[in-house]
Structure formats: C-alpha cells, structure tokens
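Would you mind writing out the residues of a protein together with its fold in token form for me to study?
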Amino acid sequence: MGKEYGKPAKMSAFPPPAAHLLNSTMLPTSSALSPLAPLAPLLILFHAHPSPTSWYPSLPPSSPPSPQLYSKGPLDALFVLGWMAALTLLRAALMRWVFVPLGRRWVSGRPPRSGKRGGRRSRREKEWDRNVVRFAEQGWSAVYYVVFWSWGVRLSLTSPFSPLSPAPWPAWVPESLRTPTAHFWLGYPYVLLPAQDKAYYLVQTAFWVQQLVVVNVEKRRKDYWQMLTHHIITVALVLFSYAGNYTRVGLAILTVMDLSDIFLPLAKMFRYVGLFKLCDATFVLFLLSWFATRQLLFFLILRSVWSEAPQLLSRACPSYSAAQGCFYTPRILCAFIVPLVMLQVIFLVWFAMIVRVAWRVARGGDADDPRSDEEEESDPTDSESDKGSSPKAIKANGAHLNGSAHDDAGLRQRR
C-alpha cells in the first residue's frame, strides 16, 4: 500500500467466477474438484503473483511496483474457519509432543507414584498431573503471543503510522493533528490490504473466535462473565474494524494487547518449575508492560478514535458510501468507541486486581486468586491422609488459551 495517501482504487463489488479461483491459486484443474480446493482460502494470500482476477479483487501492479493488494469478501470466513482448525491442531501438537514432556521433566513437586489401592493415584499425584497440563497450556500461550506480537510489531513499524518513519503529512492537516495516531485515519478507507496485513488480521480473528468458544467449553471459573465480556468485545472490535476498513487502528490495538500476554504465561511456567525468583521478575515485567500498553498506549488509541477520527474522517468521507468503502458517520464511530471504552474499563478492573496481588506479594503474602475455580474437589478414592496432605500451596489456576489477566494472581506457590 506504501506510505502515500491517495484515493482508493475502484474495484468490482462481485468476486470472479469459481474457475478463476482455481487458476489464481495455482490449483490443478480437472473435471473433478481438486482435493486442494478447500485450501484455497489459505493459499490465496500467500500466492506470490496472483492474477488480477483472483478470488479477492486486487489492483494490477503499479509503477513503480508495489506489494500485491487484496480486498475483503465473505469468503474470508473460510480462511478464519481454516485457521481456527489449524490453531487447534497446532496447540494440541505442541502440548502433546513438546510442553507435556518438558513439564513431566521440569514441573516441581512430583510425588512418588503410589502402588496402593489397586493402582489408584493419590490426590497429590493427580494434582501434579494437572500442573503438567497447565504448564503445557501456558507454553502454548507464550509461543502464540511471542509470534503474533512480533508479527504485529513488524507490520506496525513498516506502516504509515510507524513512529520510526511516519508517512509525510498532507498539507491540509493542521499542526494540532499531526500526531502519530493521526495516521490511523489519513488515507481512509483502507479497502485494499497487503497480503501480510490481511493474513495477520484474519488469523488473529480466528484466534479470538476460538477463545470465545473455549471460554464456554471449559469448566466455568468465577471470572467467567468478565472473560466472556472481554472476548465478545474483542471479536466485535476485530470484525468491525476489518469490515469497516479501520484496519490501521485495529492493527495497533491487537499489537498493543499482545505484549503483556507474553509475560504472564512465562511467569506461571517459572512458578510451576519452582523458579520463584524468575517468576517474580517476570511478574514485574508483566505488571510494567500491562501499564505501558493496556493503560497508557491503549488510552492514546482510544483518545485518537474519540478526538482525531471525527476531524480527519469527515474530510476523507464527507458522506457515507458503502460502494467506496466509506463506513463513516458519527453514529458508526460511536458504535466503535463504546466497546473500546468497555474494554478500557475491563483493563482498569484487572489492573487494580494485579496491583493488589503485587502489593500483597511485596509484603510477604501469598498470591492467591479468588476468582478462579480451585479444581480441588474431593475424590472418594483418596485416603484421609491424602486429603489432608495436599497443601494449598500446590493449588494452581486453570489456564485459558489466551493467558490474559483473568488468572494473573496465582503466580506463586507458598514456600
């Protein structure tokens, strides 16, 4: 897309025939449907030189050459569904063949295997096995957020709103509006996207839709409604920004949200293996990154949506025009602002809980999360000695896939 602001190119509102789909994705054609055809939504974005009549209508190469651009369409849903399945399989594979074996080797507190009661395991053995699974879940979360935060930073640093090399200012932009966040809106609407931007957005969409499913499938915790509200708002914002062509600000929000979610699962993994000093140090990084990104940077983004977007979008789109991709009216922008404010309120509530936990730990107390289920139900097969021998110290929080602040408080075991 480059860093020059210009008018969006005209493009057909209708996708080409299905035959062009097979040609544009380099799938073999025959009288029977190719077995690779279901992979077309995944292949189309990574095809090096797609046809101008590809599934996603796109501009022909410009002079000088620019990255191939892609529009949006209802078949993007197939890409999202495909990546929901791919992420589920990748998570299962990494947990089973990487993190569970590492957890069985590294997770501390492993009790001796009991040979009593006809091979039935004791309560402490079951708890240790659960901690191994939780260690593996946190490992998956750490891998996901490292990859996608890095990807988001790379795209942000090469975008027009990059603080390192921002795009030149049009002459009509007043000095008061020449801020880094103003580049979210200049050149709107962003109907066409580079392949990397489009792929990043759709894979993130797949992840958050998957999160919405996960929070309703696994056992409910005391913070169920907080997490459900958070996931619904996040999915709504991602879909709204994508369909409404507000992808620059959406990219910034997704990147900002991912950084702190790297440190939380790492801190919990250090706790499971008994590296308490590393756990504490990582928790401090989590606390600082949360404050810097979800409280400060997110507020700056919200301020831009609130104050800068109306002034800049009203010039770019003086009237609503779905045909041109101009989805801007004061009411539409308000519909975007309201969930952002709700998300900021949730972040403030969670940050207050994080600070309270950090204060309790700094005073020598234990970090115990009252919001999550203990999963310490009595087992009728356990002996009386087993029921009394499992200290509360080894209680660990369940781990959602996203590793966000809902279970931040259970970061340390009692020494």
User: Anything to note?
Assistant: Confidence is low (pLDDT under 50) at residues 1-65, 373-410. The two ends are 55 Å apart (CA to CA).
